[in-house]
Amino acid sequence: MEDKGEKEENAAKPAHKKENNLEKQAIILFVVMGLILASFLIAYYIFKPKPYFDYEGFRITKMKVSPSSPETFYVITLQGKGNTQSNIYLRNDPRKLNVSVDVDRLFGGISKVWITIPPDLKSDAIMASNDIGVFTSRISLDTSFALTKVEEGDYPQIGCENATKNTRVFMINISNETRVYEDGYCIMVEGTDYKKLVEAADSLVWTWLQRLKK
């Protein structure tokens, strides 16, 4: 017959076994939850939309000017001499630009760039001229801004008649068609409205970038 101590020991065994099973189940549960969490994190970082994309040999980062501003820029970083870097800004996604750019004279001894607009255009046109001017400055071209007609003051008056082999004039204007084309050594950047005018300016910069890369 079992004595009192043996009975108590035998009675404790099922309870102890039950505790061990619960511990094992808890460990398995934590391991499974850990694997699920790890899988979620891996999937998140793999499929998370990246702030940049690669297109036509360039890495392009999409960013806002500031958290409070709705305006978005597409930034392309250029590598210069001596490990210097400079950023080129587009206002439009280059993958969606479809403005005709028919120019061949963007190279070959350019020493000066004038960007000019008619004085009767709205200030919105300055965005297009500024975007081109920032780009030409970033690629080390002497860049200045002007008006096609000046009645008073010291602001430069520049038109296509001032364009030469070494001096390019970029004429920014509203027209009945959105396109970029050459008129001698003058580069015409035209849009049917101000939004299209900025698209034309971005298309010119993007085309120029591609040619520089080649």
Element-level helix/strand string: HEEEEEEHEEEEH
Q: Helix share of residues?
A: 25-40%
How many β-strand stretches? 10
Q: How many domain regions?
A: 1
How large a portion of the residues is in β-strands, by DSSP E?
25-35%
Q: Low-confidence spans: pLDDT under 50, at least 5 residues?
A: 40-48
Straight-line N-to-C gap: 98 Å
Outline:
elongated
Helical stretch tally:
3
Coarse structural class: alpha/beta
Strand order of the largest sheet: 5-9-10-8-6-7
Radius of gyration: 33 Å
Mean pLDDT: 81
Largest sheet: 6 strands, mixed
How does this structure look, described?
The protein is an alpha/beta fold. Helix content is 37%, strand content 28%. Strand 9 and strand 10 form a beta hairpin. It starts with a helix and ends with a helix.
